[in-house]
């Protein structure tokens, strides 16, 4: 789920030099340097301080290191559950996983309900957040993998997929590092006066439409704009270098090292859950029923 450049970045940070990282990774120092240059160019930020004594992280690099390490740890925890639960005779459930949809809510259920899920083994299958559209979180659902776990507030998705809601994810705001509000740990509507808020596409989510309507009616001094499609990492890259505030979620708080996710003085939240085919396999139907039984207790 993590592309090689990020794994190389962690090794460079841990070892303190390109040459030491190259020995650990069994590649050339030049290849390590090229990967780090490409990563910095893609993000538009400097992650590493280079000097004759070695390499150390910039503040942005430190935040990226923390975020990527957490994602890897979550994935490792998930894989440990897979190894513990998975047996040859068990039904395999393939879970699509990406940077923004790593499957963490299912991992939490597996940790606490191992006996109820003993008839299944699990396999993580990587997919790109670039696949997410207004009509579908991924066209690979039901073919390459059985389900995705993540936000499920898009009206368009319900026309093509089944959804089992697992809970609610609170809306937050992501503040760019160069924004005057960056030092705040919580925002009020007074803080937002005159600010521009970036929200996902209009007319795609009842929750977001209600939120937009409320803000426009009660707080007309706040400027609201919408993205053309649902979020991927490029959306965070774009607004990390702006003066706009990006609507985000608790579950996405570590996506970008140059953005700080903070609470807002509101109660808006949207559902997350398991998204699966309208014509699921027998094993998937059985799995969903088990999850429903767990959630109903």
From TrEMBL:
Entry's Gene Ontology molecular function annotations: DNA-binding transcription factor activity
The organism's place on the tree of life at top rank: Bacteria
GO cellular component terms given for this protein: cytosol
Signal peptide residues on this chain, from the entry's feature table: none
InterPro entries, per database record: HTH-type_LysR_regulators, LysR_HTH_N, WH-like_DNA-bd_sf, WH_DNA-bd_sf
Domain HTH lysR-type: 1-58
Pfam families: HTH_1
PANTHER family per record: HTH-TYPE TRANSCRIPTIONAL REGULATOR YBHD, NITROGEN ASSIMILATION TRANSCRIPTIONAL ACTIVATOR-RELATED
This protein's name: HTH lysR-type domain-containing protein
Organism (species): Companilactobacillus alimentarius DSM 20249
Organism classification: Bacteria, Bacillati, Bacillota, Bacilli, Lactobacillales
């Amino acid at each position: 789920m993590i592309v090689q450049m990020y794994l190389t970045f962690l090794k460079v940070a841990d070892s303190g030099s390109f040459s030491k990282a190259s020995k650990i990774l069994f590649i050339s120092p030049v290849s390590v340097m090229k990967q780090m240059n490409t990563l910095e160019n893609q993000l538009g930020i400097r992650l590493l301080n280079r000097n004759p004594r070695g390499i150390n992280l910039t503040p942005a690099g430190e935040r990226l290191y923390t975020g990527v390490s957490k994602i890897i740890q979550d994935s490792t925890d998930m894989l440990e559950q897979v190894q513990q639960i998975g047996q040859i005779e068990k039904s395999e459930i393939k879970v699509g996983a990406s940077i923004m949809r790593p499957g963490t809510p299912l991992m939490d259920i597996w940790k606490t309900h191992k006996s109820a899920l003993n008839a299944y083994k699990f396999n993580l299958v990587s997919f790109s957040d670039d696949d997410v559209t207004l009509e579908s979180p991924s066209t690979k659902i039901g073919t390459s993998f059985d389900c995705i776990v993540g936000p499920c507030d898009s009206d368009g998705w319900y026309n093509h997929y089944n959804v089992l809601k697992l809970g609610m994810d609170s809306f937050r705001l992501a503040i760019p590092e160069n924004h005057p509000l960056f030092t705040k740990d919580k925002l009020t509507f007074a803080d937002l006066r005159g600010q521009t808020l970036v929200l996902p596409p209009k007319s795609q989510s009842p929750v977001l439409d209600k939120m937009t309507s409320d803000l426009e009616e009660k707080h007309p001094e706040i400027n609201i704009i919408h993205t053309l499609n649902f979020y991927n990492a490029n959306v965070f890259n774009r607004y990390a270098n702006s003066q706009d505030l990006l609507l985000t979620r608790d579950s996405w708080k570590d996506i970008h090292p140059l953005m700080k996710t903070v609470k807002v003085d509101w109660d808006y939240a949207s559902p997350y859950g398991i998204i699966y085919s309208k014509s699921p396999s027998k094993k998937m139907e059985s799995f969903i029923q088990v999850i429903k039984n767990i959630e109903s207790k």
